[in-house]
Amino acid sequence: MMVVLDDVIWLTKQAKFAGISAATARCLAEPVRPFAVLLVAHFRDCLEGLQTVVDHAGFDQRSVIVAAADRLKGRSASVVGSDESHTIEIVVAERHPLETHDTAIAEFAQRLPCRCRLVHHVSLEDPLMRVFAGEWVQNVLRQLGMNENEAIKSRMVTRRLQVAAQKIERQAVSDLPADSAEEWLQRNCPDTWGKVER
């Protein structure tokens, strides 16, 4: 059984990675802790950020697994070695500009023989958020008193991100691989990326 949680939204990328580290530590400290925490990224730059989180926190790499999203496609539970008595926490550290890539992670989670929770962490500095929200949203949240050490959870923002990804999917000229979401947008959706405030 899979439970999909609302996206966790941070002001900055640094805060996002710190939040993922803290959330992972909380999971591992629960009385009935998950069998594994799977930290997932679509792009190499984010994957490296997750590996830094694991290295700095000193997490046991048998319990906290860093994985590239494209390596999960078509994979089964053997990736994490779970069975039906286990729980897996899947933390995705970014949204892909194309919704189909996020859907592939959800499909992987549904194939697991165990219970799992799936959550995306995003920051307002992430390229997709910059396409969707622009810098003004970050400024408004700061003016309302939000600081870097706190996050918001919003089903509405999750839905709006999915709509933005669907729009990008219609405008994308290709799905060429890239090392970062920003590079992906530059290569595959130049018209949309060209309109983003920098």
Structure report:
It is built from eight helices and seven strands; from the N terminus they run E-E-H-E-H-E-E-H-E-H-H-E-H-H-H. The protein has 198 residues and is α/β, with parallel strands linked by helices. The protein has a single domain, classed as 3-Layer(aba) Sandwich (Rossmann fold), CATH 3.40.50.300. Strands 1, 2, 3, 4, 5, 6 and 7 form a seven-stranded mixed sheet that branches. The mean pLDDT is 87.
- Count helical runs: 8
Give the N-to-C terminal Cα separation: 41 Å
| Rg estimate, integer Å | 16 Å
Helix content: 40-55%
The count of strands amounts to: 7
Highest-level CATH class: Alpha Beta
Going by CATH, the homologous superfamily would be P-loop containing nucleotide triphosphate hydrolases
Structure characteristics:
198 residues, Rossmann fold, 7 strands, globular
In a few lines, what is going on in this structure?
This protein has 8 helices and 7 strands. By secondary structure, it is α/β, with parallel strands linked by helices.
Question: How is the secondary structure organized here?
Answer:
Layout: E1 2-4, E2 8-10, H1 13-29, E3 36-41, H2 44-57, E4 64-68, E5 87-92, H3 99-111, E6 115-123, H4 127-132, H5 135-143, E7 152-153, H6 155-171, H7 181-188, H8 190-194
Helix pairs in contact: 1-2
